[in-house]
Design goal:
five-stranded mixed β-sheet; Immunoglobulin-like; 2 domains; rod-shaped; mainly beta; three-stranded antiparallel β-sheet
Length: about 160
């Protein structure tokens, strides 16, 4: 019954508004007080925060003797991202980019598929630090980094693993 009364009052108001001239016409519905029920007060859904991606070098361990290319096994915390957004960048003997910085595209950028977790890095013989940085699809650095130091020896060295 209230709904029908509301429709009739709105129709009457629209008819009256169409019969007036000028932009300043004002319609007042006398005796009408809208009644809202609880179902009309909908709260917007609360978006769950998207977890920040993370990256950890699982192997080789810090200080390990390795040969080149160095195969880094990573733990990547980014399962909710599309594969195109699962990218890491490696820096050899230089610090990682700061969060938000643009990272240039070059051969040390690797796109990881959903089941991929290894990256190969070519390095010369000697002691090296390798920083792994997670970057977003736009090529900007995240805060997700991990750095290890390794000793790289020639494959025929007696100290070579294997």
């Amino acid at each position: 019954m209230r709904f029908c009364r509301l429709i009739a009052l709105v129709a009457l108001a629209l008819l009256a508004a169409s019969c007036t001239r000028g932009d300043s016409a004002e319609i007042v519905l006398v005796g009408f007080e809208p009644q809202l029920d609880a179902a009309m007060h909908l709260e917007p859904p609360v978006a769950e925060p998207i977890p920040e991606p993370g990256v950890t070098v699982l192997s080789p361990a810090e200080g390990t003797v390795v040969v080149s290319p160095v195969t880094l096994t990573l733990e990547v915390q980014a399962d909710e991202l599309d594969p195109i957004e699962r990218q890491v960048h490696t820096f050899v003997d230089e610090p990682c980019a700061a969060p938000g910085d643009s990272v240039p595209i070059n051969t040390s950028r690797t796109r990881l598929g959903p089941d991929e977790n290894t990256v190969e890095v070519e390095v010369d013989t000697g002691f090296h630090s390798i920083c792994v940085l997670f970057i977003d699809a736009t090529g900007r650095a995240s805060a997700a980094t991990d750095t290890i130091s390794v000793a790289v020896v020639p494959p025929d060295s007696p100290a070579a693993p294997g």
